[in-house]
């Protein structure tokens, strides 16, 4: 699904054939599929309205108007039959049922980095709250929206919460001014508290491994710390130095070259094909000899949100690899072997890393850098894929299909789908 101004366009994922076209009341700011892909939500934040469309019954539609309360966020519940709307100033979360048309309210949600999270099985929801200048967490049962647990947290300014994939442990982390990660059980008991250091800027990002065995914490000191699920103690620290010295680390460096043109083919005015080949550059990977010095950017100390520390990290689907990005070294992706707890590969790009994401089915990483190329890495090696087409298609983000067979590449105004052919049996 994609939106163009006030129109919602639904296409077949395999052929991109147009299936449905819906018209909303105003410009669409956000869209989201229900978990069963039968409904799609369109949020019109400027109007405080959510419109819902059905794929099975195109004539059916639903409109939810928050009125004067306004709207700043909207999302589906895991069952795909309830919509959670967050009103302006985070006064409340309204839960709307598509089946019974009933309405439930959750008061005092906290405006933070990640304040509403669901367990992977869809049974429970955790909400970060702020009451009387103190942080709380409420856990709800998603089947009837009844409050299961409500407890305060030992945080100064709760920044975010995240369930472990098995739904047994909830991680909560404090503001970047206070390094603190808290781990709570489903019944609200504090299992452990982790603090790496005291005074400098603290936690910047966290990620659970798919098996729930590891919690990776990216920090402003350019390190990733990994906690284990038995004692919740640190098992290793992963550094991101500007110089790669280990001979056991493979450094793939992106290099760019202009294609050679046969002088006999030159003509004036040049043909369209010749012009595109003259001004296009091709890219490939070379393996660099260690030691390798990576491009290091010194952060500006007197500005807010400094470009420093580990801001992106993600585990592969098989738990074997961890990909990270250190914002001080914006052109590199670090790939760690979790089985050995060692740095395995560094991808050094020509441009700043915009996004990366693991294939949901196998250890294969897709990377984009704001250019018209997508980069794919797997343990077998890495490759540069040029997006065909006219004009400058700058890939700013990407998303894998759940099957791992295709990849959506998004620019500011356009998108394209990259289909990956499997090996012939």
TrEMBL record:
This protein's GO cellular component annotations are: microtubule organizing center; MWP complex
Q: Which InterPro entries match?
A: Centrosome-WD_assoc, Quino_amine_DH_bsu, WD40/YVTN_repeat-like_dom_sf, WD40_rpt
Its domain of life reads Eukaryota
> What gene does the UniProt entry assign to this protein?
Wrap73
Tell me the protein's name.
Answer: WRP73 protein
């Amino acid at each position: 699904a994609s939106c163009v101004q006030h129109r919602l366009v639904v296409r077949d994922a395999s052929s991109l054939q147009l299936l449905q076209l819906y018209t909303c009341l105003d410009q669409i700011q956000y869209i989201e599929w229900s978990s069963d892909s039968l409904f799609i939500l369109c949020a019109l934040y400027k109007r405080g309205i959510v419109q819902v469309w059905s794929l099975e019954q195109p004539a059916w539609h639903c409109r939810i108007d928050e009125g004067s309360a306004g709207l700043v966020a909207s999302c589906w519940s895991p069952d795909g039959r309830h919509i959670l709307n967050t009103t302006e100033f985070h006064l409340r979360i309204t839960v709307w049922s598509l089946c019974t048309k009933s309405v439930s309210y959750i008061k005092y949600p906290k405006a933070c980095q990640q304040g509403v999270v669901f367990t992977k099985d869809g049974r429970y929801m955790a909400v970060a709250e702020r009451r009387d200048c103190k942080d709380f967490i409420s856990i709800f049962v998603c089947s009837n929206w009844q409050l299961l647990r409500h407890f305060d947290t030992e945080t100064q300014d709760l920044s975010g919460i995240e369930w472990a994939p098995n739904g047994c442990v909830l991680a909560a982390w404090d503001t970047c001014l206070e390094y603190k990660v808290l781990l709570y059980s489903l019944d609200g008991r504090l299992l452990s508290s982790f603090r790496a250091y005291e005074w400098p800027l603290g936690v910047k990002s966290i990620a659970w491994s798919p098996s729930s065995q590891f919690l990776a914490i990216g920090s402003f000191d350019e390190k990733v710390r990994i906690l284990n699920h038995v004692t919740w103690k640190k098992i290793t620290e992963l550094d991101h130095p500007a110089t790669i010295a280990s001979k056991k680390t493979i450094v793939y460096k992106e290099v760019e070259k202009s294609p050679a043109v046969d002088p006999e083919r030159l003509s004036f005015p040049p043909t369209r094909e010749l012009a595109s080949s003259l001004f296009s550059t091709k890219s490939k990977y070379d393996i660099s000899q260690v030691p390798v010095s990576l491009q290091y950017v010194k952060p500006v100390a007197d500005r807010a949100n400094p470009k420093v520390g580990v801001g992106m990290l993600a585990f592969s689907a098989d738990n074997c690899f961890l990909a990270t990005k250190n914002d001080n070294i914006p052109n590199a992706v670090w790939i760690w072997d979790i089985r050995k707890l060692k740095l395995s590969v560094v991808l050094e790009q020509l441009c700043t890393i915009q996004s990366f994401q693991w294939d949901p089915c196998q250890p294969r990483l897709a990377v984009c850098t704001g250019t018209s190329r997508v980069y794919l890495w797997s343990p077998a090696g890495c490759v540069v894929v040029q997006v065909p087409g006219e004009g400058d298609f700058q890939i700013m983000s990407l998303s894998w299909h759940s099957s791992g067979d295709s990849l959506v590449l998004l620019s500011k105004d356009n998108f394209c789908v990259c289909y990956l052919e499997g090996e012939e049996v």
